[in-house]
Each structure stands twice: as structure tokens, then as C-alpha cells.
Design a protein that fits this description.
Radius of gyration of chain A: 19 Å
Oligomer: heterodimer
Number of strands of chain B: 4
Largest sheet of chain B: 2 strands, antiparallel
Shape of chain B: globular
Strand content of chain B: 5-15%
Order of helices and strands of chain B: HHHHHHHHHEHEEHE
Number of helices of chain A: 8
Largest sheet of chain A: none
Number of domains of chain A: 2
Shape of chain A: globular
Strand content of chain A: under 5%
Number of strands of chain A: 0
Order of helices and strands of chain A: HHHHHHHH
Structural class of chain A: mainly alpha
Structural class of chain B: mainly alpha
Distance between the termini of chain A: 27 Å
Amino acid sequence: MDIFTLAIWIGTFIFLGVSLAKDKVKTKQALKMALGMGKGMAASIFSIIFAIGLILTLLPPTEIAGYVGKQSVLLATVVAALFGTITLVPAFIAFPLVGTLVGAGVSVVPSVAFLTTLTMVGVVTFPLEKKEFGTKFTAIRNSLSFLFAIVIALVMGVMM
Amino acid sequence: MTILKKVKENLFLVIVALAYIALFIINPVMGAESVKNSGYYIKEMLMIMPVIFILTALLDLWIPKEKIIQFLGKEAGAKGVFLSFVVGSISAGPIYAAFPMCVMLHKKGASIRNIVIILSSWAVIKVPMLLNEAKFLGPKFMAIRWVLTVIAIIIFSWISAKLIKDDDLPGEVLAKPGLHINRDACMGCTLCAKNAPALFEMQGKKAVVKPYKPEALDMELLQNTIKACPVHAIEYSEK
């Protein structure tokens, strides 16, 4: 286990210990809640992971890197951001996925754009959001997020 | 429940499974390769996911959101912006769990700007995730992206507030009296059905409210169950 994962485990266990000492009943409830979240999301997380495994076999990251490398940065970034909007992926799957892409040689700018829209903009959740907030709010929030995902990516390209 | 209904509820899972079966028939080598690829992500996920869920639940438990909520109105200014980031970054559950909560906040007087901040930070700057990002993409990458994202959210929430008026939100579907479950938020964890089997039961993958007598409600049990729901999907109002 690497240092970052270890740090988060240790930190959480200290937090858990303090929490247990302060309020046993509430802590038990929190643990049940954590278990509930895990169970509730398990099926969709596993299907997303297996879908990613399949896509990466049919379209190896090195090939993606080669393809992205041939395009202009702006075009690659916009297309990467568009791919990210298709669905919302939980961040703990998005990070290793983008890590794989960067490791295989995909440049940082399109990768960041992909990462940001992957977690922030979702065509799949659009109807849900529209139902709660109305069309105008949803359209403005999602398009501004998309636009700024590209801006963040371009600025990162300059800074990294 | 019929098979068809089950298939519909797990449509994505079924499609992925069918794709695997097809691939194994056409090209077993690639099929095995896909399973191997998935294995890497499953290993990475299992190493970090349990602890992230525990940490998120603990943060959700110990940081009193009810108190924070009072400070999210239009006049709150910088303090409201800061607190909105805090609420978004520590909350549990996927972004669609944030929708009903933000509608509730807006009814209680939170400004459009602060709602956009909560939604956006809910999606991208979860505190437990920062370490995870540093691990896969490096601390420098994480730090720069984090700072840029916060700046971007501040700017575009300000733009949103200029473009969207309060009455652009439907909002007027005021809370119906009685006990309800927001089906869009519910993720079928079965906690409520276990905590209060007299009030809730599972129908397929979602919890539903059983017929109950309003005068015979065990309020303490109900309040505890409402608090325990990981995605705050249970709503109760007296009138």
C-alpha cells in the first residue's frame, strides 16, 4: 500500500477512535451508513469498472495517446471533455483511470478536461437535475461547468 | 417482481455482461484481457473505497450541517461562499443526492450562487478524494487542479447568479404533508427498512413508505431513521 492510501486509512482510524470515544451510538450509525452507501453503489460501480476494462482492451491507452497526440491540443481537449460528459463516474474510479491515460502518454490538458467533466457534468443525470431545478438552471450550470473544465485544463497545461 | 423489471433496473449491468459474453465468444484472449484490466481498477477501488465511505459518513455525522445552512443567504457574502464549499466538500453520496438537498436549501433562503457552489464542489472537490488524486496523478497535479477548480467555481457561480433568477427554479412544489421518500435520491441501501420496519419496506431496489397511522408515529425512531439515511432521501413534514 502506498503512502497516500496508508495516510487516509490511518487518519480515518484515528477519527473513528475519537468518534467512538465521544459517542458510541452515533458512530455505529455512521458505520452503518457507510456500509449502506457501499451496498447501494456496489452494482453500478462494478458495472462501470468492467465497462472501463472492456473499453481499455478494445482501445488500449497507448493507442488513445497516439491518437490524441496527432490532434491539435484544443480539439483534443474539447473532444476529451465531451467524452467526459456522457456519464458521471465516481471520483475514486476517475482518478486511477486518468492516471492510466496520463501514464500511457496522453497529455495533461485533455486528461484534465476529461477528469473534470467526468465528475461534474452528466448527460445521464440531466433529466434528474432538470426536474429539481428547472431547465434554465440546469442548462446554465452544466454548460458553464463544461466551459470552465476546458479553461482549467488549458491553464493547467501552462502551469504543469 | 418480474425478470423484465429487474433487467430494466440494472440495464447498464446487463449490457456490460452481454458485451463480455459476446467478446468471450468472438475473441477469448481479449475477453481475458478485459477481465485483467478490470481487476486492476477493482483492486485500486477496494483499497480506497471502504475508507472513503467511512470517512465521509463520519464527516457527515460530526459537522453540523443544520447550523451551516443558516449562513447561506444572499447577504452572507464571503462567509456564505466559504461555507458552501465546506458543505459540498464534506457531504456524502453521489452528486444526484445533492439535488434534493439543494432544492431544500433554496427554499430555506440559500442563494443561487451558493447552491451552484455546493453542487460543483460536491462533484469535484471531496476532501477524502484529494489524497486519492495525489496518489494517482501526483501532489503537484492535485494542488494546482484544486486551486484552479476552486477559482473556476467561484467565477461561474457568480455568473450563474447573474443569469438565473430565484423564480426560474420550479421550487413551488412545497413539501407535501406526511412521510415521503425521494425515489431519485434513494440508492436502496435498506437502512431505513432495517431501522424502522414498521414504516419502510423495500420494493425492488428502492425503499417505500408503508401505510401508517399519523397519530401512532414513533417520532424518535423516525427522526433517527431520517438522520441515518446516507443520501437524506426521507422527508417528513407535519402539516
